[in-house]
Design goal:
alpha+beta, 7 helices, Rossmann fold, three-stranded antiparallel sheet
Length: 145
């Protein structure tokens, strides 16, 4: 949810404040990769109420340090877990791709029915999983102290 926090350093400061002494925080954060085109980012971030700079790993980690937290470990999570879900039968990303295709194809019908904000948010939500699968978004798991 940190991708939605306008003042990321303040949000991370609050995380540090509520940590038990010698405690650790486990954080998952999604980042844009070099594969995410600017036009795709403009289609994705506003409808999802995401703060674009929070999707930059360098900015994110600078805020972590400004908040007085230390990164004990980090692990990048690419598309592996989505691939596993596809192969295991959940097929969430396949369904998101189908839904995105149908939304794009039926735009003229769906816009008046849903309204621009709901249409764009639904499409962005579908693209979120597809973009993860093809490497335009990539998650990281951090352990902070």
């Amino acid at each position: 949810m940190l991708i939605h926090v306008e003042d990321l350093t303040a949000g991370l400061n609050e995380c540090r404040r509520v940590l038990a002494p010698n405690g650790h925080a486990l954080v998952f954060q999604m980042f844009a990769t070099r594969w995410l085109e600017p036009s795709e980012a403009r289609r994705l971030w506003p409808p999802l109420a995401a703060v674009p700079r929070n999707a930059d790993p360098e900015y994110f980690e600078a805020c972590v340090h400004c908040a007085g937290l230390s990164v004990l470990s980090q692990e990048e999570i690419r598309s592996e877990w989505l691939e596993l879900a596809e192969e295991g039968g959940e097929r969430t990303t396949s369904r998101q791709l189908l839904r995105a295709a149908r939304h794009i194809r039926a735009r003229d019908r769906l816009l008046p029915q849903l309204g621009r904000q709901a249409y764009e948010a639904t499409l962005a939500d579908c693209l979120w999983g597809v973009y993860q699968m093809i490497g335009k978004l990539s998650g990281r798991i951090y352990v902070f102290a």
